[in-house]
Design a protein that fits this description.
Alpha-Beta Plaits; four-stranded antiparallel β-sheet; 5 helices; 42% helix; 25% strand
Length: 146
């Protein structure tokens, strides 16, 4: 399944480890480091389009503990197994994609000072989330290229 992965600025120094974990389950079709600079807040808010706004603002503040605003955007093709209904997301997700995301977060969280939940890696884990994220990215970068 096609997925969008984002290595957040707080984990960018661990990108080789994260890449290695991803390659155990799939392929990286394209990757690019991007300095979001003043667009950082808008980018994070757009990625978490369906999350609680208070949670998103807390996440932005936790990500900003690092002065860098550089992220790594990845277009991935991950082998999938079966879907299950996630009560947390209120949607069907691929179990192994969700497991990959959790494994990356856990392993790298042990190496991040002042770790706050989910400041390491974002990964779309169902078709709907992938399509909405891809649409957001296309619109965001079209508006912010100049």
């Amino acid at each position: 399944m096609l997925c969008i992965g984002i290595i957040w600025n707080r984990a960018i120094s661990h990108e080789k480890e994260i890449t290695s974990l991803i390659l155990q389950m799939g392929n990286i079709l394209h990757e690019k480091k991007i300095d979001l600079d003043s667009r950082f807040d808008d980018f994070v808010s757009g990625i978490y389009f369906d999350a609680n706004p208070t949670h998103v603002q807390t996440k932005i503040q936790a990500l900003k503990c690092d002065y860098s605003r550089t992220i790594k955007l990845m277009h991935l093709n991950i082998k999938t197994d079966y879907k299950y209904f996630s009560l947390k997301k209120e949607a069907f997700v691929y179990k192994n994609i969700e497991a990959l995301k959790e494994k990356i977060r856990y392993e790298i969280s042990l190496k991040i000072p002042n770790y706050y939940f989910d400041v390491i890696f974002h990964l779309t884990d169902n078709k709907y989330e992938y399509e909405k994220t891809l649409q957001f990215l296309e619109n965001f970068f079209e508006k912010n290229i100049s």
